[in-house]
Design brief:
Mean pLDDT: 79
Order of helices and strands: HEHEHEHHH
Distance between the termini: 82 Å
Helix content: 25-40%
Number of domains: 2
């Protein structure tokens, strides 16, 4: 919807916007109440109730030619929109991504900061423990030597003992 919004604003003086559902048996009754609601592009209704207006909402907004006889009452449309998104979890859908130029609103769960910051692992090189790189290299080499020995690419050389 955000990508369409610029075009809607550019054509604002010639067209109104109309809220449309998918118009099938799966449409929720709350969303069906807003079907064919036609309002100007600059109406405050669109700032809070541009689709999607719920989880798995298939509603959309289309441009229609301006016709004063089909324009809905803005206050009534806002009341219907508030009824649709009245539950606390649904209030995050009161958002217009086109005007705010964001994919998700600030109150969306994906934009919340983490409660606890991750700490560095004590065994990482960044922890500053001495000898970490050397031990890691030795383990890697011994593991590779075992693999090469199994597939026949490595033959250990006999160690020379000093008496």
């Amino acid at each position: 919807m955000a990508s369409k919004w610029r075009d809607f604003e550019a054509d604002g003086d010639r067209y109104d916007l109309q809220y449309r559902t998918a118009a099938d048996e799966k449409v929720r009754a709350e969303h069906a109440a807003l079907h064919d609601t036609t309002l100007p592009v600059d109406d405050p209704f669109w700032n809070g109730f541009t689709p999607p207006n719920g989880w798995n909402c298939r509603c959309t907004v289309v441009q229609v030619r301006k016709d004063p006889s089909t324009t809905a009452d803005s206050n009534h449309a806002v009341e219907l929109g508030r009824e649709i998104t009245s539950e606390p979890k649904m209030q995050m859908f009161r958002f217009n991504s086109g005007t705010e130029l964001k994919i998700f609103p600030d109150r969306h769960p994906t934009t919340k900061p983490r409660k606890r910051q991750r700490t560095r692992c004590n065994n990482s090189p960044a922890s500053g423990r001495k000898g970490y790189a050397k031990r890691w290299t030795q383990r890697l080499r011994s593991g590779l030597n075992k693999i090469w020995l199994m597939i026949g690419l490595y033959k250990p050389t006999p160690s020379k003992r000093v008496k």
